Amino acid sequence: GLWLAFALAFAVVRSIDRGPREDKAAANEGIRLSIKNTLILGPLGGLIGVLILSLLIFRFDLAMLTDSSAWPGLAAIFLCFAVLTGLWFGGLDVIRHYILRAILAVSGQVPWRYADFLDHAAERILLRRVGGGYIFVHRLLLEHFAADALNPAPASAEQSSAPPSKPGS
Q1: Angstrom distance (rounded) from CA 38 to CA 88
Q2: pLDDT tens across 18-37, in order?
Q3: In degrees rounded to 5, what are phi and psi of residue 24?
Q4: What's the pLDDT tens digit per position in 49-73?
Q5: For residue 38, which of 90, 129, 130, 131 is within the disulfide window of CB 3.0 to 4.6 Å?
Q6: Concatenated DSSP letters of 54-67
């Protein structure tokens, strides 16, 4: 009984592909797959956790599961295992993804609808879409943006280097 539950849990865990896919075709496909994994595997992990712990706690007396006084404890066990399993199988990645997007959008570094921005750049032939990602069409453009990112010029230096304008001239 208990070994069967462990074998089932092991089989489910091993069947999940946690590695990145190289053949992604749509923008944000990876994060959508993480959300799907979280929503499917979270409750499944909760059920497996309840089964395993109830077998251990009730010592294989599954008739105790019908006792309504055990339900709040089982619900708490389910919730804990569901949340932990969901976080492990993509939920944490989803949280990190949206926190990073929010930070970058609020700070003005990138637009919130980043995929639309990249699609717009691809329409203007600045970028080319390759699978689920983008590459620069022109090597010089890539090098220009890379150099700007490494050596940002302070705004005050540009203003102070310009000669002062004379009124009326």
Answers
A1: 8
A2: 555 555 566 678 888 889 98
A3: -65, 135
A4: 888 887 777 665 666 667 777 778 7
A5: 90
A6: HHHHTTT-GGGGG-
